Amino acid sequence: MQAPPILLMDESTSSLDGPNEVLMKHAIDRVAKDRTVMVIAHRLATVVDSDQIIVVNHGKVEAVGTHDELLLSSDLYKDLAEHQLLV
After folding, report:
1. Are 66 and 38 in contact (CB under 8 A)?
2. I want to staple 86 with a disulfide (CB 3.0 to 4.6 A). Which of 24, 51, 70, 81 is the partner?
3. Which GO terms describe its molecular function (predicted)?
4. What are phi and psi of 11, to 5 degrees?
5. Is the pLDDT assigned to residue 87 strictly greater than 70?
């Protein structure tokens, strides 16, 4: 079986505790090499190191960028990051 070029991860860490979330993130990072990975997540820690983050609010794209770019350009993202203690 050939490895798929695109992986879709939908809330893959939502029911995990902190230590297991870190293990899952490392596993995703390993399988992501040479692939496109789309991650749907409410926990920003899951996507903070992503090349691009798309912020969706009420079904509409509100902002796109890296973690650092979004902290400066998106009030919603900044509020979420502050709430989740990522800043």
Report:
1. no
2. 81
3. ABC-type oligopeptide transporter activity
4. 55, 45
5. no
CA–CA gap between residue 18 and residue 5 (Å, rounded): 28
Q: Where are the alpha helices (DSSP H) in 1-87?
A: 18-31, 67-73, 75-83
Place of tokens 């995703």: 28
Question: Nearest 5°: phi and psi at 56?
Answer: -115, 130
| Cα radius of gyration rounded to whole Å, the chain | 13
The active-site residue, picked from 11, 21, 62, 82, is 11
| pLDDT tens column, 30-73 | 888 888 989 898 888 888 989 999 999 999 999 999 999 999 99
Q: Which one has a higher pLDDT value, 38 or 86?
A: 38
Of 51, 53, 28, the C-alpha closest to 42 is 53
How far apart CA 2 and CA 64 sit, in angstroms, is 31
Check if the beta carbon of residue 26 is closer than 8 Å to that of residue 33: no
